[in-house]
Write the structure tokens for this entry.
Amino acid sequence: MFATIGIVSPADMGHAVGRVLKGGGRRVLTSLAGRSARSRKFAEAAGLEDAGSLNGVMAAADLVLSIMPPASALGFAREAATAMQRTGKRPHFVDCNAISPATVQEISRVIASAGATFSDCGIIGPPPGGRGTGATAQGQATRLYVSGPHAETLKELDGNGIAIKPLGVEVGRASGMKMVYSALNKGALGLYTATLITAERLGLTGELMSELGASQKAIHERINAAVPWLATDAERWIGEMEEISATFASVGVTPRYHEGAADIYRLLAASPLSAEKRETADRARSLEASLRIFAATLEGRKAAE
């Protein structure tokens, strides 16, 4: 059914998903108009075909996957709906972004107004075929949780490092799954980082890490594996924390935990380490070195207030 698939955009996750789908024998398109040299490099490495414009993607694709920072998701859906009207083609549109159920329902209405079918998708796990850690490094596929009236049709994408996980016909369930999972996963990393910066400011980093190594080994290992390089993802994760906060508030749970996590990721995004990318980050840098930079950024921010 989905012989030609459009991926927008071909960044860390998007190009990896596109590579897997192309490896399954499908034609995979993207639009590189206005994209960075990094995205162009990713698209070329994945073998994605440049359709030249969003109109070109919409005109040729049977299925379009929106994979981008959450703050861009609704705006892109509006652009996609306009492109559908211009081209007269209405591919099945799947929002795969880290957004709240309320946001994805608004996107669903935008796509429906253009006359196209829609599915909700939440991606959990690192990009397929990437390095990853934990369960994914042990062979677990990248999970695409999907929901909506047409979500069952996406089962044909299952395989080659992608696992399709249907969650029923209600739009918002897949995004809700992404929200609660990321609330624990990336929310915990924000808490760890806030605590470690506090320990650094108190001169207690070594003592805290020694105690965690003795009494909380799993947390100790995760901190060392992730925190030194969190600044590479921090800017993208701010919007995700805001969407999680909105999700919590919508069901009467305090949004403040993840509002705080968003503030920590803003701090990391303001640090010099945010200039690194996943593929260029200094993997030899110690946790302690990263914390000194984060603490200095905080000191600078406070001095400027």
Observations:
- Residues 131-138 have pLDDT under 50 and may be disordered.
